[in-house]
């Protein structure tokens, strides 16, 4: 491949990082290429990274309290209060809107594949708004319609925490995905409501029972935006062979997570991790899903990356490693963008 392929990514936490940023104007810093972290507009363009699913995410309370106490209204609490949860998620949605509004046409919130393809042609950054963990909708269900109107087209109903919608997925390493009960009635109702709106349902943070509950109630491709192969790394969030078979049967998709703890056989948070390990997971998933159902789900700005993949600009190193491992140009193009385009089209149409 003579040129860097276009890259559409299944998961990043940029909006949360912008919300947590101590900068006076992190939106300006992103647009003008001076934002610390894994992503800013200049580096994305250099890498051929045209966008993806941008997560609205409620970070762990202890992390915010210990590292960003200025973001809390009621610092003496032991957890976010309900208004804080609403305010945090609304603030991240507004940050996505500001990125679009202040970019002079360089960034666009997309709600259709037609819009994403137009961004590709026009060299714009495409933002698909995703919600990772839906606690805010347990507090105020009517926000689903408001967020949808603003561009929300993808949702992961659960995160690691237990919520009204089901048990989270949190376990020590090594562990199977079987970590608790499945979806609650409210969780099933939320998923059905989102499915009726042709939204992508992300099962990346679902335990095994919730995963199978989801398959029983929706008739659309099952998508895992940022998880890996359990056979290669026995994290509870990684996928077993029966889960992969069900995803393939649904005509679904898995985005490979670049976080070292979900890649390494020992599960360690060790950045001295070879890019070959990412390719190992790609290989395994292709063997089980087929080459039309695997892509990238980097978790940029929300993960610990291998040293060789320090930010988005180093994706060329990963592409080179894939080429060295005999991934042909056509397969690389599928993994870097075309498979995501196809599954979004199947769900959104």
Topology, element by element:
Blueprint: E1 7-12, H1 14-20, H2 26-31, H3 41-47, E2 49-57, H4 61-67, H5 82-101, E3 107-109, H6 113-122, E4 125-132, H7 135-139, H8 143-150, E5 152-156, H9 185-196, E6 200-201, H10 208-217, E7 223-224, H11 241-249, E8 253-256, H12 275-289, E9 294-296, H13 315-324, H14 329-348
Parallel strand pairs: 1-2, 2-4, 3-4, 4-5, 5-6, 7-8, 8-9
What would your notes on this structure say?
By secondary structure, this protein is an alpha/beta fold. The protein has one domain (7-348): Metal-dependent hydrolases (TIM Barrel, Alpha-Beta Barrel), CATH 3.20.20. Helix content is 42%, strand content 12%. Strands 1, 2, 3, 4, 5 and 6 form a 6-stranded parallel sheet that branches. Helix 9 (185-196) links the parallel strand 5 and strand 6. Helix 12 crosses helix 13. The chain is globular and about 55 Å long.
Summarize the structure.
The chain is an alpha/beta fold and 349 residues long. Helix content is 42%, strand content 12%. α9 (185-196) links the parallel β5 and β6 (200-201).
């Amino acid at each position: 491949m003579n040129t860097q392929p276009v890259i559409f990514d299944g998961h990043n936490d940029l909006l949360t990082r912008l919300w947590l940023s101590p900068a006076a104007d992190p939106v300006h810093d992103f647009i003008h290429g001076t934002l610390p972290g894994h992503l800013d507009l200049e580096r994305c363009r250099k890498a051929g990274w045209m966008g993806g699913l941008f997560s609205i995410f409620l970070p762990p309370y202890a992390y915010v309290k210990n590292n960003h106490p200025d973001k809390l209204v009621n610092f003496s609490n032991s957890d976010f209060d309900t208004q804080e949860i609403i305010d945090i998620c609304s603030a991240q949605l507004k940050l996505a809107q500001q990125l679009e509004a202040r970019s002079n046409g360089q960034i666009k919130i997309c709600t259709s594949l037609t819009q994403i393809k137009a961004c590709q042609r026009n060299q714009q950054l495409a933002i698909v708004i995703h919600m990772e963990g839906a606690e805010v909708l347990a507090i105020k269900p009517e926000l689903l319609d408001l967020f949808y109107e603003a561009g929300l087209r993808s949702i992961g109903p659960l995160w690691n925490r237990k919520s009204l919608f089901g048990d989270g997925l949190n376990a020590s390493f090594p562990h199977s995905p079987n970590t608790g009960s499945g979806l609650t009635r409210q969780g099933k109702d939320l998923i059905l409501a989102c499915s009726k709106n042709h939204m992508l349902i992300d099962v990346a943070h679902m335990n095994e029972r919730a995963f199978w509950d989801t398959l029983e109630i929706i008739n659309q491709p099952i998508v895992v935006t940022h998880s890996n192969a359990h056979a290669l790394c026995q994290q509870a969030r990684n996928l077993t062979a029966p889960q992969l078979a069900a995803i393939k049967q649904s005509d679904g998709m898995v985005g490979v997570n670049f976080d070292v703890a979900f890649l390494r056989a020992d599960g360690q948070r060790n950045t001295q991790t070879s890019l070959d390990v990412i390719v190992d997971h790609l290989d395994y998933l292709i063997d089980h899903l087929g080459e039309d159902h695997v892509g990238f789900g980097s978790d940029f700005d929300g993960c610990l990356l291998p040293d060789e993949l320090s930010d988005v600009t180093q994706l060329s190193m990963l592409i080179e490693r894939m080429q060295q491992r005999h991934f042909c140009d056509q397969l690389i193009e599928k993994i870097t963008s075309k498979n995501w385009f196809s599954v979004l089209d199947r769900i959104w149409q």
